[in-house]
User: Which sequence fits this backbone?
């Protein structure tokens, strides 16, 4: 049984396929974009939005995608329908550049989709996090308007640092010293019943699951305040919740020495998200 499927050059392959040559621009200069969606319990929430975003990311990076989001979505849905599995999958469409030294050659843009078996974290679990010394870049210093692969080594440095300290993940600040997000997940903070999340200021990914969570929280009757969050507020939070592609809605049960466990806002949001997903 295969655990990975690759679509490249017009065909699906039931294995991990080599994508780049030794002289590919993307392999040594990092001109690659991707997106991440999920298949679980027979649904693919917001798949259309993820597929449209990978196209926008490619265009931000001056690539030349030769398909639109609907075509990407169609390829994914058709293949997963044929796989017919109950296992959770991670869905990753990608574009990258083959040619160019300095300025890229947009016409050399290539495309693939990777489907990979990847279990969802179990309900009833959570994660710990600490503050990282590594920060998220500003739009003046990195292509933050795209979901570009070159943004992620900074996050993996922060994550690795947290692991060495005995934590599962890390909180990263933005270039101005305010809370941005976890390494690869957006962050929500609950204090005295008020839900806050860092304002999308170009130094954090305005995630699709983040946007969906805001809508669901408002439908649940919570006012969500998008604002500057100071790092000291995390130590006094009643709840901290992450949103992202891997786990969708997942609780941070400990930040530094602040042990919070799973709170009622998380429980309601997760239930609402799973209910929404069932309609997709």
Assistant:
């Amino acid at each position: 049984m295969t655990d990975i499927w690759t679509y490249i050059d017009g065909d699906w392959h039931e294995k991990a396929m080599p994508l780049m040559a030794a002289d590919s621009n993307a392999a040594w200069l990092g001109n690659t974009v991707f997106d991440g969606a999920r298949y679980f319990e027979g649904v693919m929430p917001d798949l259309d939005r993820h597929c449209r975003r990978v196209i926008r990311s490619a265009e931000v990076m001056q690539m030349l995608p030769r398909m639109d989001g609907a075509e990407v979505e169609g390829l994914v849905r058709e293949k997963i329908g044929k796989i017919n599995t109950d296992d959770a999958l991670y869905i990753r469409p990608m574009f990258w550049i083959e040619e160019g030294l300095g300025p890229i050659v947009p016409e050399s843009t290539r495309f693939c989709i990777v489907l990979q078996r990847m279990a969802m974290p179990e309900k009833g679990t959570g994660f710990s996090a600490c503050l990282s010394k590594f920060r998220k870049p500003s739009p003046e210093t990195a292509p933050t308007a795209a979901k570009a692969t070159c943004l992620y080594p900074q996050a993996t440095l922060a994550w690795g640092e947290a692991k060495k300290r005995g934590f599962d993940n890390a909180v990263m600040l933005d270039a101005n010293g305010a809370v941005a997000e976890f390494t690869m997940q957006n962050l929500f903070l609950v204090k005295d019943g008020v839900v806050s999340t860092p304002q999308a200021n170009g130094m954090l990914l305005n995630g699709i699951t983040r946007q969906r969570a805001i809508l669901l929280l408002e439908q649940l009757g919570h006012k969500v305040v998008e604002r500057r969050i100071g790092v000291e507020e995390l130590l006094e939070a009643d709840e901290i919740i992450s949103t992202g592609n891997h786990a969708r809605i997942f609780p941070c049960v400990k930040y530094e020495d602040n042990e919070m466990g799973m709170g009622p806002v998380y429980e309601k949001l997760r239930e609402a998200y799973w209910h929404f997903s069932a309609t997709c």
Notes: Residues 72 and 93 are 8 Å apart (CA to CA). The chain has six helices and 15 strands. The mean pLDDT is 97.
